[in-house]
Amino acid sequence: MKKQLAELIRSFNHRGWAPATSTNYSFIDAENQIWISKSGKHKGEFTQSDFMTIDNKGLGLGDFTGIKPSDETKIHLWIYRNFKQAKVILHSHGIYPVLLSFMAKPSFRVQGYELQKGFKGCQNHLDNLAIPIMINQQNMDLLCMELDQRLNEIKQYCFIIEGHGTYAWGENIFDAQRHLETLDYLCQSEYLRK
Ligand SMILES: [Zn+2]
Q1: Domain range summary for the chain, segments of one domain joined by +
Q2: Of 105, 147, 149, 152, whose CB neighbour count within 10 A is largest?
Q3: CA angle 178, 121, 172 (to 5 degrees)
Q4: What DSSP string runs through 109-159?
């Protein structure tokens, strides 16, 4: 898992979705242990040793005691608490969701795209989908408060943060990646259309 995810993270950097040290990633292993990207690692050079284990408060465990996990660790913990099927979480700073977020808030509404079916459970391009756009905050407790309030609006395994980026998750890397790429594609299409 670590090797495959590290490879994916480097590819996101090459796509422009994870410039410099930005963005963060996590997964839950077979022993139910959360692994998350360490803070301050360049995503174009990210390797499997750049993950660390954390407890459910976001503090480093064992060999990783005292090491700083990603600044947005609380968002990952919030997703794992509220979506039991989530085992892999991906974050992107891709520019299309960011640009679109300013125009589309409080929700990105989309309908009519074949690629909507990239979201698990969506079987028709005519379904009306709404992806919530959260207010960006440096205080993760405030961000998680809005997530709590809008929990029932999150139906496609993802959400957008205004002027910031996207979070998407799944039961495995394949699903999480498919949700993140689907959201990016839909944002790109709607942005270019507007
Ligand atoms: Zn971010």
Answers
A1: 2-193
A2: 147
A3: 40
A4: EE-S-GGGGGSTT---TT--EEEEEEPP-SSHHHHHHHHHHTGGG--SSEE
Percent of the chain with pLDDT over 70: 100
Kindly state which CATH superfamily the domain 2-193 is placed in.
Class II aldolase/adducin N-terminal domain (3.40.225.10)
The beta strands (E) that lie in the chain are given as 26-28, 34-37, 51-54, 88-92, 107-110, 129-134, 158-161, 165-170
Cα(72) to ligand 1 centroid in Å equals 7
CA–centroid distance, 165 to ligand 1, in Å, is: 6
**The pLDDT of residue 71 is above 90:** no
What spacing in Å lies between the alpha carbon of 166 and ligand 1's midpoint?
Answer: 8
How far apart (Å, rounded) are the C-alpha atoms in residues 21 and 13? 9
pLDDT of 58 reads: 93
